[in-house]
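Hello Y.,

Per our agreement to keep a running log of every chain we model this quarter, I'm adding this entry. I've kept the format consistent with earlier entries: sequence first, then predicted structure.
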Amino acid sequence: MLRYIEIIGSSLKMALQEFRSNKMRTFLSLLGITFGIFCIISVISTISSMEAAIQNDLKSLGSNTAIFIDKWEYRDDNNYPWWKFVKRPVPKYEEMKLLKANVPQLATAVYFTSTNSTIEYGDNILSGVNYDGITEDFAVSQKLDIGYGRFLQQNEFDRGTNSIVIGYSIAEKLFIKPEKAVGKVVRLKDGKLAVVIGVFAKQGQSMINIWDYDNSIFMAYSFIKQMVTYGQANANIMVEGKPNVSLAEFKDELTGTMRAIRKLSPTEEDNYALNDVATFSNNIHELFGNITLGGWAITALSLIVGMFGVANIMFVTVRERTSQIGLKKAIGAKRGTIMTEFLLESAFLCIIGGLIGLIAVFILTQIFSAMFSFKVFISIDTIFFAIGICLTVGVLAGIVPAYIAAKMDPVVAIRSK
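Predicted structure for the entry above:
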């Protein structure tokens, strides 16, 4: 055991000595390794961080059985003519009620409508504000973080009162201090008055802003329909299955019920879309996987260049230490020991190049985190992955020079200059 530790220590010492004595030559030779590690780790870190942020946003939609019933498919399907989507009917509130009554596997169902308009308080007017009309199950299916006041209650949904909950950014722009918004009367679309009963806690930026709480107004569907007629607003039905129900089973049940509700004959195609969150999540994962493969193409070329650079260093090193190799073999060093020393030295050189690349990636992650709406990070698994790449490239680069050193004749090697 001590012998192996000595070999490792000696190889590391030799690698550091090589780096110190020939800084420029070693640095230029390791540049391919450094650039390769920089490319793949920066791609993996950025893509995995971006995917994690998007997947985290998708979790806000609900469980794995969350499905959006809409006229539109939430995916790019070039095989289906767009004009057929346009001709499909918009989901109706009555259809949501029928689903709740006829699908026993259904846990929650929310009728959701959205549009854009203005909000006024005094002389302050904000335009382009998101109006979101919802039904009572929204508070059950979604995790709501109220900063001030409260959310809508059942009686307000039933009576269609003019109570609204506004986003933090809206409250900040209208009232300077968001906590002052609670209890104030504001003017909405077509001069409709509404009472602010709550303010969402600050959400901050997110990747896809599924529920843009900071810049939205939430109100009961029975209230928003007083300002927006059927067909003027984007509408869909968001449903979730019970915990013990599989997604496939739940979709089959919804398909049968929706076809019955819309009185579609067996020969007619569906005139609605079931967009499930799980499939969308899988598509996101596949997309980012393909982007990562593109990063590997650049990385492979850089690592090959770096491998030849390290191999060149090791060939030169073998020639410079020929007499030392001969002396070691003369006093009893075995071929395996000589070969192991040079392979480890080659691997350590690659690790040095990889560490330089990792430091550059770490600096890049700090810059990206400040620029983007999500935090870019390097996971522990990624660091070990980078070290593994360096070790592999190091062994491949050093195997031929190490073999040449191991098979040297000790007498000839000692006499060489």
